[in-house]
Design brief:
binds glycyl-adenosine-5'-phosphate; BirA Bifunctional Protein, domain 2; Rossmann fold; 454 residues; 3 domains; 5-stranded mixed β-sheet; 23 strands; 7-stranded mixed β-sheet
Length: 454
């Protein structure tokens, strides 16, 4: 399976999905650029999420808040004090690690948050440094994961937001005052978050700059939340399936009660079987009234809801379904990657993306490059379709090679203009997955694509 990851890293670089960033300067700290196809794939995933979460629901509204926020927010939320990971350094080779990850990998023990215990285990059980193989550790110590920066006109440290959620809580009052929302309702946001991870890695799984798609869903404290909690989990599993994840590659992990924050009633992660093992993809937490109460106390502003029907005022409780966008992209890439042996003995690599997520929906080929009448007709078709679908025109190399190129980027349909087209206005449409070809009238092509790309 590790091999699969290498193949995906290589294909996505070679074919313009994901590039290691700052490469001409020797790279930079496991950061990546989404190339032309990756950017398209990412946009399609965001659009699908927004459509399902905001557009299709009367009980949800969207928000687009800033990355730089008043640092009082992070004090109130507990991030300044407690958003820490445990780090430990190898005194021999100077490599730095997450202490809890090292301990868990070596002993299976989950000692998250227990610095002294971690130090003891690392030293007493002589846990080896994964890099140099020696066992000579510093003590485990906490490191705050927020990135600090400065701002003109502001005294003191400012932080790049470590999650998008904070920007949502502080707009609760504005949303209540400006929109006709009634509890229960939710606010959704997509955007960048920044965490100074001790070790980033596993390609785009753990990044220091990443994107989240988060929902804060506000409910009455008296509300029987258990059924809704289950429905959000099912929604998250359904969204993972939309990305192409198979049911058997998903599982739920419920955080043990003793590990939950005092305000949380329940937290469940949706884990996916990545090539490096089951790991968190999405999360769902019942956060009680912690966020609105903390921001209300710290700001002196009432963050309450007035239920006019029952003449009651209360601080809503929050259910928080959170989705990692980069991890969603990774799931889509892993699930789509397919190697197939063909009848003629050759092999093909095909990215079987869910059709609605594919970066390019349709490729248009003239059968021969040196026949202006075919090229002209194919160009005409490309020009007609490109305002509706992401299309590509390709006249380079033989048709077989063009199919393989489109298979590798997961294009669902390839359309060829040939000599018959000039006679009867039909084209050959080849399906990415079955490789079957059918003749379709040009006037029916747009409808065919619309029907089949849903
Ligand atoms: N507001 C809640 C929150 O931020 P989280 O579990 O810390 O919860 C939510 O993060 C999601 O963000 C995770 O489920 C994961 O998909 C994604 N995520 C977290 N850290 C990440 C990182 N370093 N790189 C990429 N994605 C990350």
């Amino acid at each position: 399976m590790e091999n699969l990851m290498e193949k995906i890293v290589s294909l996505t670089k070679r074919r313009g999905f994901v590039f290691p960033s700052s490469e001409i300067y020797g790279g930079f700290a496991n950061s990546y650029s989404y190339g032309p196809y990756g950017a398209e794939l990412k946009k399609n995933i965001k659009d699908l999420w927004w459509k399902k979460v905001v557009q299709n629901r009367a009980d949800m509204v969207g928000l687009d808040g800033p990355i730089l926020l008043n640092p009082k927010l992070w004090e109130a939320s507990g991030h300044t004090e407690g958003f820490n990971d445990a780090m430990v350094d190898c005194k021999e080779c100077k490599k730095r690690y997450r202490a809890d990850h090292l301990v868990e990998k070596a002993t299976g023990k989950d000692l998250e948050g227990q610095l002294e215990e971690m130090t003891k285990v690392l030293k007493e059980e002589k846990v080896k440094c994964p890099d140099c193989g020696k066992s000579n550790w510093t003590d485990a110590r906490n490191m705050n994961m927020m990135f600090k920066t400065q701002m003109n006109g502001f005294d003191g440290d400012v932080y790049l937001r470590p999650e998008t959620a904070g920007a949502i809580f502080i707009e609760f009052k504005n949303i209540i005052d400006s929109m006709r929302v009634k509890v229960p309702f939710g606010i959704a946001q997509i955007g960048k978050a920044f965490r100074n991870e001790i070790v980033a890695g596993n390609f785009i799984f753990r990044l220091r700059e990443f994107e989240q798609m988060e929902i804060e869903y506000f409910v009455d404290p008296e509300f029987k939340w258990e059924k809704m909690f289950e429905e959000w989990l099912e929604f998250q599993e359904e969204f993972a399936a939309d990305l192409g994840a198979k049911k058997e590659d998903l599982r739920r992990y419920e955080h043990p009660k003793e590990k939950l924050s005092h305000y949380s009633k329940k937290t469940v992660d949706i884990e996916y079987k990545f090539p490096f093992g089951f790991s968190e993809l999405f999360g769902l937490a019942h956060r009680g009234d912690f966020d609105l109460k903390s921001h209300s106390d710290a700001s002196g502003q009432k963050l309450e809801y007035f239920d006019a029907q029952n003449n009651r005022r209360f601080t809503p409780h929050i259910l928080e379904p959170t989705f990692g966008l980069d991890r969603s992209i990774l799931v889509t890439l892993v699930s789509a990657y397919t190697e197939e042996k063909l009848e003629d003995g050759s092999e093909r690599v095909v990215m079987k993306f869910p059709k609605k997520l594919a970066p390019v929906k349709c490729a248009i080929f003239p059968l021969l490059k040196n026949k202006p009448e075919l090229v002209g007709k194919a160009r005409e078709l490309y020009d007609a379709l490109k305002s509706q679908f992401m299309c590509e025109f390709d006249d380079n190399g033989n048709i077989g090679k063009r199919y393989r190129r489109q298979d590798e980027i997961g294009t669902p349909y390839c359309v060829t203009v040939d000599f018959d087209t000039l006679e009867d206005d039909t084209v050959t449409v080849r399906d990415r997955d079955t490789m079957e070809q059918q003749r379709i009238k040009i006037e029916e092509l747009e409808g065919f694509l619309k029907d089949n790309l849903k």
